[in-house]
Amino acid sequence: MGLICVRQFCLSVLLICVLCPIQVLQAAPAHNTQTMQERDPWEGFNRGVFAFNETADYYFMKPVAVSYKWVMPTVAFNGVNNFFSNITELPSTANALMQAKPKNAGITVARFCINLTVGFFGIFDVATQLGIEQEKEDFGQTMAVWGIPSGPYVMVPFLGPKTVRDGTGMVVDLKLDPVYVENVRARNTMYAVKFTALRADLLEAESLISGDRYEFIREAYLQNREYKIHDGNIIDYFGEDDLDDDDWLDDDEL
């Protein structure tokens, strides 16, 4: 796995050298002010794919995830999630550099090294316990920083919500993913475990979904992507440029 990670990291550096002209790195992503109809012009098609995904999840993916979580001890369950999370630090480093974010790149390298060594190959997330929070970056975010528009919202079979930009970025993310090894059997096995663990980790979050599931998931996805692309610096369209915690009323003040 160590040689694989090094190989993927070298590919990442090569990609940076090829795709990162300085003038593109200096481009700032524009905050999206499109209406939802403009952002989701393929809603009819998307709802059909969403219904297919929901059926596949109900009869296959969710039962597998529930069984996986039931048989896995808590330590092992967390360890698998931590392992896959840690190896994503390498492509995150490459994308941070392509976005001209050296600080974020340094954080991801530090997290990877700490968890790989002290965390016993990433099974334990020691870096987070030390206060070094994860800074995930992907190629969809990188293209946003380069000024490439998001394109329409699209629901992808089995993979769920994306935008055209994020879906295109998945091709690069796949090649940068350390799990994408040459041995097909090993690669498929690791991806099966990775996606099963990811689905199992989302089981508790299902209780948060309310109303129209399609609309809820669409809004949650698009807002989450905007938040990540702008590093949490979202423009307030209700008249205030900056809102501090004190500007919000507590529940007992309503």
What is the fold's blueprint, element by element?
Layout lengths: L1 H18 L2 H4 L10 H4 L3 H29 L2 H14 L1 H10 L3 H16 L8 H4 L9 H7 L7 E4 L3 E4 H13 L7 H18 L11 H17 L25
Antiparallel strand pairs: 1-2
The averaged pLDDT comes out at 84
What structural category arises from helix and sheet content? Answer: mainly alpha
Helix content: 55-70%
Main β-sheet: number of strands, strand sense, barrel status?
Answer: 2 strands, antiparallel
Number of strands: 2
How many structural units, i.e. domains? 1
- Overall 3D geometry? globular
Determine the strand fraction and express it as a percent band: under 5%
End-to-end Cα distance, whole Å, is 54 Å
Instruction: Give the topology string: H per helix, E per strand.
Output: HHHHHHHHHEEHHH
Unreliable segments of 5+ consecutive residues:
1-6, 9-28, 237-254
* Spatial strand sequence of the major β-sheet: 1-2
How many individual helices?
Answer: 12
The whole-angstrom Rg is 20 Å
Describe the structure in your own words:
The chain is mainly α. It has one domain (2-9, 45-229). The protein is built from 12 helices and 2 strands; from the N terminus they run αααααααααββααα. The protein has helices at 2-19, 22-25, 36-39, 43-71, 74-87, 89-98, 102-117, 126-129, 139-145, 164-176, 184-201, 213-229; strands at residues 153-156, 160-163. A two-stranded antiparallel sheet has the order 1-2. Helix 6 (89-98) runs antiparallel to helix 7 and helix 9 crosses helix 10.
